[in-house]
Amino acid sequence: MKKETYKRLETVALYAMAMAFLEALFVVYLRNISHPIGSSLFNLELGREAATIIMLACVGILAGRERHEKFSFFMFGFAIWDIFYYVFLKLVLNWPPSIMTWDTLFYIPVKWFSPVLAPVIVSVTLIMFSLAIEKAEGTKKKVVVKTKEEGLLIIGCVMILFTFIYDYLRIIVSGMSLSSSQLLSILNAYTPTTYNWPLFIIGELLLIVGIWMFYGRYK
Fold first, then answer.
1. What is the mean pLDDT of the chain?
2. CA-to-CA distance for 52 and 65, rounded, in angstroms?
3. What is the rounded distance in angstroms from the CA atom of residue 195 to the CA atom of residue 36?
4. Is 35 exposed, middle or buried (0-12, 13-18, 19+ CB in 10 A)?
5. What confidence score (pLDDT) does residue 34 get?
6. Could you give the CA distance from residue 160 to residue 76 in angstroms, rounded to a whole number?
7. Distance, CA of 113 to CA of 102 (rounded, Å)
8. For the chain, N or C: smaller number of CB within 10 Å?
9. What is the pLDDT of residue 29?
10. Is the CB of residue 100 less than 8 Å from the CB of residue 116?
């Protein structure tokens, strides 16, 4: 990769780490106020998450030149943010106690649950893909994700996403006969106990194969 590319990657990483630190502190305040999150704080949490994605998207847009490179920097920033979010929570709160501790990852459009290890693995994979794109950008070839590669990446992402949201969707479907207040109470009190690691691993392998196929064309 070019020296200029390394500088831009460092800039994106620095921004993402700073944002992760601020977000970790914000979560500390939220947890001191109320746990689990009440309805008013829930809306605040939705806004925080939307703002986070917007900030990372802005970084990608500003750091990249072509469309694929903008997406690459977005992935890189998202991954750095996600990893250091847990790093700073560990330093400030000594949480999570282990990498297998359950966490609520997102609330948009529904709650995402998983052990902390799962999103960290996904983040490392995103970094791999973003670096592969930047490697391809440094060659004289046109950067294109072929149909097979795209298919593997999409299927892998869908599988992993399903492992995150399955529990929440299952509760919603099984509680369709309940009132909205009853269903909300059940959802707020719910804590997962098992995670579909086999499906997650298959999804991760598909992502890695897709990334490797893409990277292999630009060695």
1. 86
2. 22
3. 21
4. exposed
5. 53
6. 18
7. 7
8. C
9. 67
10. yes
For 26-106, list the strands marked E by DSSP: 102-106
Most confident of the ranges 9-18, 36-45, 172-181: 9-18
Looking at residue 206, its pLDDT comes to: 98
**Collapsed DSSP state (helix, strand, coil) of residue 198:** helix
| Secondary structure letter of residue 107 according to DSSP | -
Q: Taking the model in full, what pTM does it have?
A: 0.82
| DSSP-based three-state secondary structure for 63 | helix
Are 56 and 78 within 8 A, CB to CB? yes
pLDDT tens digits, 116-132: 999 999 999 999 999 99
Distance (Å, whole) CA 99 – CA 213: 30
What six digits make up the tokens of 48?
A: 């925080």
List the structure tokens of 13. Answer: 């990483």
Nearest to 71 by CA among 136, 22, 18, 119: 136
pLDDT score of 32 more than 70: no
Q: Tokens representing 214?
A: 């893409």
Contacts of 159 (CB under 8 A, 6+ apart): 199, 200, 202, 203, 206
What are the tokens at 96? Answer: 């999570």
CA distances from 123 to 59, 89, 120, 207 (A): 17, 17, 5, 12
- Distance CA(5)–CA(16), nearest Å, equals 17
| pLDDT tens figures, 156-168 | 999 999 999 998 8
